[in-house]
Amino acid sequence: MKKLSARRRHPLAALVVLLLALACTGGLYAVFAPADKAKAEATAQSLTIDEGKKLYTVGCASCHGTGGQGTSDGPSLVGVGAAAVDFQVATGRMPAATSQGAQLPRKKAIYSQAEVDQLAAYIASLGAGPSIPTADQYGPEGADIGKGGDLFRNNCAQCHNFTGKGGALTGGKYAPPLNDVAPKHIYEAMQTGPQNMPSFPDTTMSEQNKRDIIAYLGAVNTGKTVNPGGTSLGGLGPVSEGLFAWIFGLGALIAVAVWVAARTAKARKS
């Protein structure tokens, strides 16, 4: 009896019980706490999609179909992704006006950003597509402005001009100016290729390259760049520069030619 009593009173027994209790508590927390968090996130996402569906039914379904399948008045939205919705709706291009021109112009947005996010979540639920980029993807940190300039001139300047001032296209269409466009929307445009613009997914143009281009546009449109050749003439490129050369350069040559001819004629008379 004395031996059994001593075993029950062993000083390590309480420590073992305490360790077992802590292990059980930690295990239960690890099992149930993440599940509760994931469940809460899933519930919040489901509510966002439901609200987006309500907005879609009222403002978009008449053209794009009740399930985003598209109609004769609007293309299918299945698989376009959240980024396309954020770009089109947040820049006011959508909803489109009843009588539109050759392409959808940028105008004041009628939805708040929260509503845009809800619409984007609903459209994303219809089919996988590019997601809305984060600030880490389009922010200036780690961007190479010089490389961005090279990329822009090789891939974008043909339509948007050398410094993003915009330009005319065929059939009354145009490449819009980029001087006052939010970096997020520039990234989304490259990712999704809205309207006449080709798309540049990450498989074609990396995330870093997109960041470089956005940084370049930010530099040339905020007056932080230096023009070693003189005035930038508005940054409009070869058209304005050629016109300047034609008027002043050729005009000066003509004036010199007239002066020389006049002096030669005067010398002959003498």
TrEMBL record:
It holds the Pfam family Cytochrome_CBB3. SUPFAM superfamilies: Cytochrome c (SSF46626). GO terms for molecular function: heme binding; iron ion binding; quinol-cytochrome-c reductase activity. Residues 47-127, 143-221 form the Cytochrome c domain. It is a multi-pass membrane protein. Its EC number is 7.1.1.8. Heme c 2 binds at C156, C159, H160. PANTHER family: CBB3-TYPE CYTOCHROME C OXIDASE SUBUNIT FIXP, CYTOCHROME BC1 COMPLEX CYTOCHROME C SUBUNIT. This is Cytochrome bc1 complex cytochrome c subunit.
